[in-house]
Amino acid sequence: CFIYILSLLYSGYTDLRLENGSDSCSGRVELQFLNEWGTVCDACWDMRAASILCKQLNCGIAVSVVGSDWFGEGSGEIWADVFDCDGNETKLSECSISSWSRAECSHSRDVGVVCSNSSLARHDGLVRLSGERQCEGEVEVFIYQVWRRVLLDSWSLTESSVVCRQLGCGSVLNFYGSSSSSPEHSHECVTGFQCSGSEAHLGNCSSPQTLNCSSTQQLSITCRGSIRLMGSGGGCAGRLEVFHSGSWGTVCDDSWDIKDAHVVCRQLQCGVALSNQQVPAWFGPGSGPIWLDEVECEGNETSLWSCSSPGWGKHDCQHKEDVGVMCSGKQQTII
């Protein structure tokens, strides 16, 4: 996350805790500043910060970072948006942070953490998507103290919808099988999740069974929430917004052209780009982070994430330069 760090070291809070969890090692993150308790915004909060917090609370290591739907919304102040930990700190106060503020946050974005010493960590259903994309990748669930990949067998759109909802990534765009292996993961995978579709978490679905990972293809999911078009009243035209590090942000129109727009329309299953429109007045300026700038696509990519750019948050733009895209079709879900 590219946010100017106003303070290289801040140790002004007086206490920390995890609230509304199953025990003291899981729950909504809350920090006390002077005599006032407040929650922490999920923007730029990651597993490194969570691991430092768990270590400080003598709760082992971080198992998962979750949203407010797990432990509820807090009240009062919303503290520092950004904790920039390198993973070697012994206390959260040793991490660099941004200024303490409520900018771009609400209690619907209160971050929660599950540590390995929590009883909740032994429950099935904590989920993440591998790779750098928060809303697409191979599905992994934490079961029996180990992250395990999920097999494509018996998986459906219903279970995919639960995963995307649990991750705060909107609805399902696609799910598919792939052959992949990594020495850092367990040799056992899981299969057999059965969901009704209304569950808030995969852990509320029927329990799976473990199998050898080589037995079939492993599951990958792309959630529609990782990219969207806003401001037009329809899903296939609008201001381009992308989801990264827990928050929605915009894309600057520098170097944007019709090839980039075609990739966006293809990723959203919205046909082809109708216009190389760069006039933000059509869809209005956005708010929050400007996540991408100087995007360069060849035009044949299946995802905007395959295109080159200087990196997340690296830009010299204002929201009046937020790019808009107009596509030919209507969104469809591919399975």
UniProtKB/TrEMBL annotation:
This is SRCR domain-containing protein. One of its GO terms (molecular function) is serine-type endopeptidase activity. One of its GO terms (cellular component) is plasma membrane. Residues 16-116, 127-224, 227-328 form the SRCR domain. It is found in: Membrane; Secreted. PANTHER family: SRCR DOMAIN-CONTAINING PROTEIN. GO terms for biological process: zymogen activation. SUPFAM superfamilies: SRCR-like. It is a single-pass membrane protein. The keyword Zinc does not apply. Disulfide bonds join 41-105, 54-115, 85-95, 195-205, 297-307.
